[in-house]
Amino acid sequence: MKFYLLDDDRNIRRILTQIITDRELGTVCGAGSNGHEGLEEVFDLKPDIIIADLLMPEMDGITFVEHARPGLPDTAFIMLSQVSSKEMISAAYEAGVEFFIQKPINSIEVENVIQKVRQNLTMKRTLQKVQELFTEDIPGTLPEESETITTDDGDETLPSHQESLATLQIILQRLGISGDIGSRDITTVVEYMILHHAKAADLTLHELCSQFCDSPKSMEQRIRRAAAAGLVNLAHLGLEDYGNEIFTEYSNTLYNFEQVRKEMDYIRGRSDKHGNIKIRNFLNALVMYCVHK
Q: Which GO molecular function entries does the Swiss-Prot or TrEMBL record give (predicted)?
């Protein structure tokens, strides 16, 4: 993994470089002291991960991310901050920041956060490979027993069918919906999407549900209600603790963070509108988690 470091404090850049190097987390391909300098370099360097300070002179970290992210869709952003303001943290998440590292810097926290971001990047890249499989003309299946398959470039392996379903159940439990009747429907649909990727690629949720019952509308409604319940539970976690591990991971993958924030505003009585869910994106993200080893 290639890192770019952005902080007006030279000592912070030096410490981060040492942690990344000593713990073999990747290589530092560049560093800058302000947002303008960073924008001049990152588009050419194309780092995998950018660690940027929130409060910098001339251009703050949020503004930098807002300018850099559109041109670096495959780059993950981590933000350094001493600020505990929920409004500012929320703005950073909306800009595209995936995780925060609190100052003063703790090497263990830095390593843990970087490992999580590395894992998320790997999963996103695996999803891209899976989506490519979805567009193939010839239907295929994942193995149903204990063996694994390897992607075309030989870099990744996809877990077995049973491992994938076990992963799915863990995620549904974390969302607090494993006991919901709709979670069984979600499991059925996700399993079908994994086993019949090419055939399922262009199907709507209604068409997917039609594969299993004579009342696809009822099944579809149960899935939507379960996904909505997961959104509500996630929003409550965020209200209690913005740094909650489940909240930070799934609000940016299974759901859209902006919509999670809308649900949080609804719960707090600041809005009369719930957050929305793109159910196909939700299911595709579940598939991503299931097929990533």
A: DNA binding
